[in-house]
TrEMBL record, chains A, B:
Reaction mechanism of ThiL seems to utilize a direct, inline transfer of the gamma-phosphate of ATP to TMP rather than a phosphorylated enzyme intermediate. Keywords: ATP-binding, Kinase, Magnesium, Metal-binding, Nucleotide-binding, Thiamine biosynthesis, Transferase. PANTHER family: THIAMINE-MONOPHOSPHATE KINASE. The keyword ATP-binding applies. It comes from Tomitella fengzijianii. Residues 39-150 form the PurM-like N-terminal domain. ATP binds at residues 133-134, 159, 234. This is Thiamine-monophosphate kinase. Mg(2+) 1 binds at residues 56-57, 134. Mg(2+) 3 binds at residues 41, 86, 232.
Length: 353, 353
């Protein structure tokens, strides 16, 4: 990480001094929800309907982010974003976050302030506050976020509800984050980098990696529209849809032409292709296997229209179903791209590499 | 950590393989509370009264525990216990836990299985289940636990409600954990250790350090009995009561004779004194400054009787109040032991040492 001469470190300012500096204002509209926040043994939040949704994700320096590539504020944003995407994938809306942070004593307080500001900004985007946390000494920077959410009377949409005949739909695209990461790994932006690519395209892909924008509102919207199953695509499209297929006991068949329309998300498939050409990579490896774009994937009954922002990319089938021409679908849960099982990059592997 | 030849590592078994091995049964009685648990994007819990209590604590290997001293199951138990104690200190009962775990790829799966079994056992003691989590690669073992709890119509007891005239009370004692840690640091149990101490006393103190038993039920009990403020003593008695004094804007005066009756907790003040003699330490440094015993401290109106298990150890005063003999109490929030501000060990410092 970038450090400046003589800037105060966490060891110098101390746990409570740092916590005082990080305490931020609550976003507007959270006062009815946040009944007790940071500064007590625990926070107390109101729940809208007698249920609370909760999930947790840990980010480790050098593994999930590098402070040479990510500004501290990007790390804070991303930690909140990936947890908030999990709440959205249940059909929920975030009500509060708890942030536990480990870091070396030599960490400049500025780095934590920027990280905290990024986390608060992303929390405010979903209308929630950071209501609690912990600050401890560790060898590397470790951020562990817990997101709490409300369903407001909505059904929780699980991974297990997809039924044969349903439509598979995506809100957002995949591949841009993996392409952005590949560019950073190639040394893009440094004088040694010989990759020939349009500056603006590279910037879009790198931004997609550093500052993902999950479509939070699309989760509750899908639940309201009758989604039968839903999942946040964090490890890779095929890998995560594989979990949904397994939990639902179905075969998902994706249409590559439809996928290409959304691949690359905000950056677009042209950017993916250009970056792949420049790096000698396959853009489909990024679109099907790359993680961290955080679109939502859901299945919907075929009869109804899809909610705004959602696009059909495939269909749900019974395992072992007979196909035209006498072929049969796989006998167990699977994800097909066209007619084939995808055999490319396996998606994010927690203990790989 | 102790590893055996050829035992499978986390890298070999992989994230989802490990998670499958760690999935345990829910404790009885949690089915009405746990609506969706591990295996989906997020868990869903029922809340008893439209409010949820939530807190988080991170434990780092080498900083908060050492796998040479603690069995993995002890680490799992302690991570749950210290979070559950924070829920109790608000007057709440635990309903579920989320556990995020970082570890090196070379970590034997057995270590995680034992850690998880310890965490599940302690969660079951408070009648709650582990409903979600994350497993990632890190340089050292890092456990980040979030506890969720219910108030069931009870008022949340905060740190800020102590009023002059209230009684300060403790449920449980302090100092045994610090004494146990000092014994472990002295090499107790190894052939090089020359500390002369009764084996059984040493075992009691070390057990207090490795396997704390916070009085979880005493939190809701204190809330029901009208406690005006409450806190979990995790960093040290004087340090944590200092937070309560600061939030309430009062002076707390503790009676050393009363403290001595509870010091050492289950082990007792005789054990503390014997260990201090053997190590050349001051037992009061452990009782007043030592952390991780997790008794609860609370203030109660003077009129009523204290709930079972709680013992009066001091009184609450206005800042700057006049004393008999013309003396004045400190002009700002403070904790006095007898007539003096405690000047010994400052309690746990997150970025010290």
């Amino acid at each position: 990480m970038r450090t400046e001469v003589d800037e105060p470190t966490v060891a110098e300012v101390g746990e409570f001094g740092v916590i005082r500096r990080l305490a931020g204002d609550r976003p507007p509209g959270t006062d009815g929800t946040v009944l007790v926040d940071t500064g007590d043994d625990a926070a107390v939040l109101a729940t809208s309907d007698g249920r609370v949704v909760a999930c947790t994700d840990m980010l480790v320096e050098g593994r999930h982010f590098r402070l040479e590539w990510s500004a501290p504020s990007d790390v804070g944003r991303k930690a909140i974003a990936q947890n908030a995407a999990d709440i959205a994938a249940m059909g929920g809306e975030c009500t509060g976050f708890l942030v536990a942070l480990g870091c070396p004593p030599s960490t400049p307080v500025r780095v934590l302030e920027e990280m905290s500001a990024g986390a608060r900004a992303e929390a405010a985007r979903v209308g929630a506050a950071i209501v609690g946390g912990d600050l401890v000494q560790a060898q590397q920077v470790v951020l562990s976020v817990t997101a709490l959410g409300a369903l407001s009377g909505r059904r929780a949409v699980r991974r297990s509800g997809a039924r044969p005949g349903d439509v598979v739909a995506l809100c957002g695209g995949t591949g841009a984050s993996a392409a952005g990461l590949a560019l950073l790994e190639s040394g893009w932006g440094t004088s040694e980098c010989a990759v020939a690519l349009d500056e603006a395209a590279a910037a879009r892909l790198i931004a997609a990696h550093l500052r993902p924008h999950p479509p939070y509102g699309a989760g509750p919207q899908a639940a309201d529209a009758g989604a039968t199953a839903m999942i946040d695509i964090s490890d890779g499209l095929v890998a995560d849809l594989g979990h949904l297929a397994a939990e639902s006991g179905v075969v998902l068949r994706l249409d590559p032409a439809r996928l290409a329309e959304d691949a690359g998300g905000g950056a677009g498939f042209d950017d993916l292709r250009a970056a792949a050409d420049a790096l000698g990579a396959d853009p489909w490896d990024w679109a099907l296997g790359g993680g961290e774009d955080h679109p939502l994937a859901a299945t919907f009954p075929a009869a109804g229209p899809l909610p705004e922002g959602w696009r059909a990319v495939g269909t749900v089938h019974a395992t072992g179903a007979a196909e035209a021409g006498g072929a049969r679908l796989p006998a167990g849960p699977a994800v097909l791209v066209g007619d084939s099982c995808y055999g490319g990059a396996p998606g994010w592997v927690a203990f790989g590499g």
